Automatic annotation (TrEMBL):
Pfam family, one: Exostosin_GT47
Domain of life from the UniProt record: Eukaryota
Main localisation: Golgi
Organism: Acer yangbiense
One GO cellular component, as annotated: Golgi membrane
Keyword Transferase: yes
Protein name as it appears in the record: Exostosin GT47 domain-containing protein
Length: 582
């Protein structure tokens, strides 16, 4: 009994001592848990500071690390959609900030405005201000819109600021856990970029390279260096062209059958349309078979062919052509993700037929967002010089330019001006009324006399009159350039080809319809010295309008591509997965 009691007493005493030892530890543990424990940052931790992600503090934006596991991810019950941190970051205090697209690829596409899949950064021309934002709104259900402040910050390489202070990239990581700032923060490991994000980062580097080239040294080139007043900014153009040669890739949709698709007229006034479609189809430098590598996407339909094979002659019903375009766009958008990803902003069509402008608006998004490369670049028919591309109308009756290029020196040109052409449209009747057979220095004809060569007359003239017909474009502009004759553009609402690069005022004369009665005095007011300069510049820019069956650098095929390349540089596309809901 005694031993047993003694044993029991000893055990009870030990238990008491252990209890007295454990109680303080339990109290401390409870105390710590109440006050809160230190927060250790890891790559999978996802904070939920809505003020950091939204320019509007009342909005609730969320994001996810997009890992396979669920550790640290925000529950969907709390938010409608998850946003990828590395795709988009919204700056704090957005009213006073500008967006800066960083070359650090771990942080891309910051925006001070509500986030959108596509931001349109509009370019006017390659002059002293490269890729200038003109603020064209191409919104569609709030998905595509301009960003007023983005390009100024990007082109000036500005840093992101918060409360007036320049912030480093680490600021955005550290700010996510500012309530736990007692411990040093370790920057998050960047998430792998998507192919689209890498492409957009590369385009941003290109924008900056063009910007720097505008005021830097002239880039050397073994073939051709564009210099002179014929260019708005020769250095910027040259660098942009070289960047295009290195990087630009176009995906041509293979859907569609000839003759409406992948075909076009190559021996007519619409030859630019057919030759471009064919040349791009067989091109190996710019065409890619992998759409993931493409910067732009081409709809290979021919408006001229649709007018011939789809339109019902004399029906005055444009419906069949429109339905053909709508059906094709719907087919493409159903098979590929790229149209829906950008709402068509990186897609383009090309047409030289008079009905090209009307056809370009067959589909709402094709009309509003896509790039229209048109011969009839008429601003009164919704052509936008910021978004669209003006291309030259070239009449190749034989399919090539053999025998079309040449002409004597200025001293051997005896005529002041020349025109011959049919009477159609509002401008030509006025020209013929005032000048047909009225002046020996102004050879203006409705029809040329028998035995008189049209091209010989062009080569005798100092100035070649190029009045618009029913449509603003005229093949006479290129014909004049081919023959070394200074073109006189008589038109309204016309945007000359490649006017994003070329300074047309340096090698042509622009005359409005109301000044036709005073046309001779206008031409005589140009001094001989100035005329010789202009004529020399015509010869210098001629290479940009020459068609070659095998394209040569800086020829018309490459210049069309370059204008499309510039328009593509104006658009930034975001991953569709990175959508934002409030």
């Amino acid at each position: 009994m005694g031993d047993g009691f003694a044993c029991c007493s000893s055990s009870s005493s030990s238990s008491m001592k252990l209890l007295l030892f454990m109680v303080p530890l339990i109290v401390v543990a409870v105390f710590v848990s109440v006050l809160g424990r230190p927060n250790i940052s890891s790559s999978s931790f996802v904070p939920n500071h809505t003020w950091l992600w939204s320019s509007n503090p009342s909005s609730s934006y969320s994001f996810s690390s997009n890992n396979n596991n669920n550790n640290g991810s925000v529950e969907e019950s709390d938010h409608n959609k998850l946003v990828d941190l590395h795709s988009r970051v919204v700056m704090v205090d957005a009213q006073n900030k500008k967006e800066a697209l960083l070359y650090d690829e771990s942080l891309l596409n910051r925006s001070s405005s509500p986030l959108t899949p596509v931001e349109s950064l509009q370019v006017k021309q390659l002059n002293g201000t490269i890729l200038e934002d003109e603020g064209l709104d191409v919104s569609e259900n709030g998905k595509v819109q301009r960003d007023d402040d983005f390009f100024a910050a990007t082109m000036n390489n500005e840093s992101v600021t918060v409360n007036g202070e320049v912030q480093s990239d680490a600021f955005f990581v550290a700010s996510m856990n500012e309530s736990d700032s007692t411990l040093p923060m370790k920057p998050k490991t960047p998430k792998a970029l998507t192919k689209l994000q890498r492409m957009e980062a590369g385009l941003q580097r290109t924008r900056l390279a063009i910007k720097e080239a505008a005021t830097g040294n002239q880039t050397m080139d073994p073939d051709f260096v564009p210099v002179g007043p014929m260019y708005l900014n020769s250095k910027a153009f040259h660098r942009s062209y070289l960047e295009m040669e290195k990087k630009f890739k176009i995906f041509v949709y293979e859907e569609g059958e000839q003759p409406v698709f992948h075909d076009g007229p190559c021996r007519s006034i619409y030859s630019t349309e057919g030759n471009f479609i064919y040349t791009l189809d067989v091109n190996r430098q710019f065409r890619t078979k992998n759409p993931e590598k493409a910067h732009a996407f081409f709809f290979p339909f021919s408006v001229a062919r649709m007018v011939r094979f789809v339109y019902v002659r004399d029906s005055h019903d444009f419906g069949p052509i429109k339905r053909t375009v709508v059906d094709y766009v719907n087919l493409i958008s159903g098979r590929y993700p790229y149209w829906n990803r950008s709402l068509g902003a990186d897609h383009f069509m090309l047409a030289c037929h008079d009905w090209g402008p009307e056809t370009s608006f067959s589909h709402p998004l094709l009309g509003k967002n896509s790039i229209h490369a048109l011969c009839n670049a008429n601003t009164s028919e919704r052509f936008s010089p910021i978004k669209d591309v003006s291309i030259p109308e070239i009449n190749l009756r034989t399919g090539d330019i053999k025998g079309l290029i040449g002409g004597p020196s200025p001293s051997r040109r005896s005529l002041l001006a020349f025109f011959a052409g049919g009477v159609h449209g509002p401008i030509r009747p006025v020209l013929l009324e005032h000048w047909e057979n009225k002046d020996e220095d102004m050879k203006v004809h409705k029809y040329l006399p028998k035995g008189v060569s049209y091209y010989d007359m062009m080569r005798k003239a100092k100035f070649c009159l190029c009045p618009s017909g029913y449509e603003v474009a005229s093949p006479r502009v290129v014909e004049a350039i081919y023959n070394g004759c200074v073109p006189v553009l008589i038109s309204e609402h016309y945007v000359p080809p490649f006017s994003d690069v070329l300074n047309w005022k340096s090698f042509s004369v622009e005359v409005s319809t109301k000044d036709i009665p005073n046309l001779k005095n206008i031409l005589l007011s140009i001094s001989t010295r100035q005329y010789i300069r202009m004529q020399r510049r015509v010869l210098q820019v001629r290479r940009h309008f020459e068609f070659n069956s095998r394209p040569k650098r800086f020829d018309v095929f490459h210049m069309i591509l370059h204008s499309i390349w510039l328009r593509r540089l104006n658009v930034r596309i975001h991953d569709e997965q990175s959508s934002v809901t409030s």
